[in-house]
Amino acid sequence: MKLFAVQKVLGLLLTLFSFTMLPPVVVGLIYRDGEVWPFLAAFLLILGVGLLTFLPVMRLRQELRIRDGFLVVVLFWTGLGLAGSLPFLLADEPMLSVTDAIFESMSGLTTTGATVIVGLDDMPKAILFYRQQLQWLGGMGIIVLAVAVLPMLGIGGMQLFRAEMPGPVKDAKLTPRITETAKALWYIYVSMTVACTLAYWAAGMTFFDAIGHAFSTVAIGGFSTHDASMGYFNSTLIEMIAVLFMLLAAMSFALHFVAFHRLDLGVYRRDSELRFFLFIMASVTAITTLALFYSDTYITWDDAFTNGLFQAVSIGTTAGFTTAEFFYWPPFIEILLLFASFVGGCAGSTAGGIKVIRFLLLIKQGIREIERLIHPSAQIPVRVGGNSVNHRVVDAVWGFFSLYVASFVIMYLLLAATGLDLLTSFSAVAACINNLGPGLAQVGPHYANLHDPAKWILCVAMLLGRLEIFTLLVLLTPAFWQR
User: Fold this and answer.
1) Distance CA 189, CA 216 (A)
2) Is 224 helix (H, G, I), strand (E, B) or coil?
3) In angstroms, rounded to a whole number, what is the distance separating the alpha carbons of residues 289 and 469?
4) Please, are residues 229 and 313 in contact by the beta-carbon 8 Å criterion?
5) Do residues 62 and 155 touch, judged by C-beta distance below 8 A?
């Protein structure tokens, strides 16, 4: 384990993160909301810690190994959650405890969108902007951004990229050099954010709201600048714009890159994962619409469809925006939508969940096992997109799924042991490990009423979901620390 190399990267990344405290300062000055100094103080504190960590080892030149990359990612995301809580702790409004501040910070950075803050409509603009910015930075992963800088300092970035990028296949590079890969991903991310901002603005949002909601839409985060979330705007046009960009952000960014690079939209049509993802979204939308209409939740087909479509896409992609109090809808719809979040978006997207490609592989593996019962001697490969999938990838998916279920069950039991009812416990763990945000029962509107032990358990769930189980749990194995 090259601990000094790890220290160097952590120090550099903390130093870079400190500068993200400055945009809220500008917002605070523009709106004169009195919340400038918490961000200036946080900037100086985080910058100081970052420099004290980085400067003693700045001349060290060592290549990170894969295990070092895992350690950096876990330590950085944990440290980032703590550092990101400083403005919430220092601000006069909202007045948050240490637990609540860390919960809000972790929820933002992991793009979960579970909040403990109520009264958002009257909150200082600097705080509102900061919450949205946290989600935007966490959406693609601030580490991937930093990968473009590390090679210049003598530290390779591929190990970090493997540990950070979502999805079951982490070795694929879009361009020959990892630096160019990171830049390509960020160009797409920023371009999508700008397009989403302009679309929201043109549809009637204020420029401030348009930027804030574009940040959380493209990041598949779900934070809003209003307590009523997207329902505040009461605009079908805004809701449909959100649906479009949530779908785009839940698709693989590698797919977007290839389509743009080749100027070939057929890339989307030929992708098996994307076709399955759109099939799931269409199916959940159709079932939800029918259930809303025939349960008399909505009287007209138009209302049933627009609300059903928005919530199916929002929860299915793990964004977590709401236009209605879906946690008061018929129980069948609530559970259907919550289960849709377990699938989540495509690998290589900003969405949470288990990922579509993993579910596709699990289904195909299940079908293969049934066929093997009929033809025991047959060699039946698992195919995706016409190509055979290596058995090690299938094994890894099964391993991920088993660890995911085990982690979910353990945290569900722990949460229930703290005294919460079973529906609240189940939906809270599901919403946090899937990086969804809104749950059912007590955690439908917000998480402010939960006690501190439950919030700490859910912080772990968010981190597990964001780092896709393996990255965090690998640090708990004795083999990881052996020389």
Assistant:
1) 12
2) coil
3) 34
4) no
5) yes
CA pseudo-torsion sign 14, 16, 19, 24: negative
The Cβ-side half-sphere exposure at 184, using a 13 Å CA radius, reads 18
How far is it, in rounded angstroms, from Cα 158 to Cα 151?
A: 10
- Evaluate the omega torsion of the peptide bond into residue 453 and state whether it is cis, within 30 degrees of 0: no
What one-character DSSP code corresponds to residue 149?
T
Helix ranges (H only) for 352-444 are 356-374, 391-417, 422-433
- Which amino acid, residue 227? D
Q: What is the dihedral of CA 294, 299, 300, 303, to 10 degrees?
A: -90
Q: What is the Cα–Cα distance from 336 to 163, expressed in whole angstroms?
A: 31
Residue 449 carries which side chain, given as an amino acid letter? N
How many residues does this entry show for the chain? 483
- Tell me the C-alpha to C-alpha distance, in Å, between residue 162 and each of 127, 169, 170, 213: 33, 9, 5, 29
Helices (H) and strands (E) in the chain, counts: 23, 2
What DSSP string describes 295-358? Answer: TTSSSSHHHHHHHHHHHHHHHHTT----SS-GGGS-HHHHHHHHHHHHH-S-TTSS--SS-HHH
What tens-digit pLDDT sequence spans the chain (483 residues)?
Answer: 678 888 998 999 899 999 999 999 999 999 998 889 999 999 999 999 999 999 998 888 777 777 777 788 888 889 999 999 999 999 998 999 999 999 999 999 999 999 999 999 999 999 999 999 999 999 877 546 444 434 433 434 444 555 555 555 444 555 556 667 777 888 899 999 999 999 999 999 999 999 999 999 999 999 999 999 999 999 999 999 999 999 999 998 888 888 888 888 999 999 899 999 999 999 999 999 999 999 999 999 999 999 999 999 999 999 999 999 998 999 999 999 999 999 999 888 889 999 998 899 999 999 998 998 998 888 888 888 777 888 888 888 888 899 999 999 999 999 999 999 999 999 999 999 999 999 999 999 999 999 999 999 999 999 999 888 887 888 888 888 887
To 10 degrees, what angle do helices 356-374 and 272-294 make?
100
d(CA 469, CA 433) in angstroms, rounded, equals 9
Return the DSSP state at 440: S
Both structure tokens of 46:
């985080």
